[in-house]
């Protein structure tokens, strides 16, 4: 991720100093930048001169002190290890100018904890890019408990300068927006399979061909990596014990070395390429279950003031490729219908995950049932 972020900065006209643990790794990152820029030239997205100019803007530098000594903005993309990142933030804080904003590309770790490793927690922010950053439009800008508004705004402005679409995550919750909503949806699919209510193929077929998601849920889980899904869902369950219960599906697979695409096997066998999801099973799983789970997950984010509906919808469309965001979807389905479906599932399966978020219940009580009432997550003319 680090080299790709350096690349898009340079393509946007910014001077970049890039570092890593050794010259060899820095050179590897630089070679990948060159490879990616060549692809852009081949596809005529940029011309040769723009590629050459971008490369001249990138310097490889040894050590944090020299790398950040004149920085306005530092973006850390080291491995996902809190202690390692805290050490990096501590050292960078000591060398970067007082004006510099320190950002992390972490997918799961606490921005508040990273801020507390520095003497400038108000200037520490999350900038969560999506992979590959050269192509994916979304950046989640994440406020830690001490991050001030100016810092969040500067991160939003920077993302825009890079040609990205930023969304604001106002609270430092695990999973931010995209992985939080996806986490609820993964759990729904995993539980449905685990309880024997539907098969992997039935669920993926419904999600892909009826809901129009770019991938099936199990296919996406394999693509992300089951080790990552396993640790992210456990973190969500520990933060939201009242509403998230991890199904005993992924952990045994991880223990057996089945990590998804990267290990050649997960829910699917990837050794012969991308799985073929059968089209003919699309009617055999009630895709409304995925919809109401996503709407409920989005409602929790609004209820807990993590994000506004517009940003949640933008995040799911640009970060996960969903054809609709969960808030606009909820308004279209009717929030009364969503709550009724959640209650029906709750009665039938007695799982806390189906408990409707209080925000949805309040909206329905007020008659804010979505588009048909001209008021739901959004208001309509
Ligand atoms: N891979 C993804 O899809 C993805 C997406 C969004 C965010 N992220 C986040 O981006 C970060 C990096 O992920 P990645 O997949 O690029 O990891 P990676 O392991 O591919 O790259 C990490 C890089 O950091 C270097 N590094 C290790 N220790 C370092 C140190 N002490 N100082 C400086 N550099 C050091 C490594 O040599 C390596 O080049 C993580 O926080 C991850 O959660 C990853």
Average residue pLDDT: 96
H/E element sequence: HEHHEHEHEHEEHEHHHHHHHHHH
Largest sheet: 5 strands, mixed
Terminal CA distance reads 42 Å
Query: What compounds sit in this structure?
Result: nicotinamide-adenine-dinucleotide
Number of strands: 7
Relative strand content: 5-15%
**What is the SS-derived class?**
alpha/beta
What general form does the structure show?
globular
Which spans have pLDDT < 50 for at least 5 consecutive residues? Answer: none
Number of helices: 17
Rg from alpha-carbon coordinates:
22 Å
* Biggest sheet strand line-up: 3-4-5-6-7
Helix content: 40-55%
Secondary structure blueprint with pairings:
Layout: H1 2-11, E1 16-18, H2 23-42, H3 48-56, E2 58-60, H4 64-68, E3 73-76, H5 82-95, E4 101-104, H6 111-116, E5 124-129, E6 138-143, H7 149-161, E7 165-169, H8 178-194, H9 200-210, H10 217-224, H11 226-239, H12 250-255, H13 288-303, H14 309-320, H15 326-333, H16 335-349, H17 358-365
Parallel strand pairs: 1-2, 3-4, 4-5, 6-7
Antiparallel strand pairs: 5-6
List keywords for this structure.
381 residues; alpha/beta; 17 helices; 8% strand; binds nicotinamide-adenine-dinucleotide
Polypeptide structure, described:
With 381 residues, the protein is an alpha/beta fold. Helix content is 50%, strand content 8%. The chain is built from 17 helices and seven strands. The strands form two sheets. It has a five-stranded mixed sheet, with helices on both faces. It has a two-stranded parallel sheet with strand order 1-2. Helix 6 (111-116) links the parallel strand 4 and strand 5. Helix 13 (288-303) packs across helix 15 (326-333). The longest helix has 20 residues, at 23-42. The chain is globular, with a radius of gyration of 22 Å. The structure holds nicotinamide-adenine-dinucleotide (NAD). Nicotinamide-adenine-dinucleotide binds next to helix 5 and strand 5.
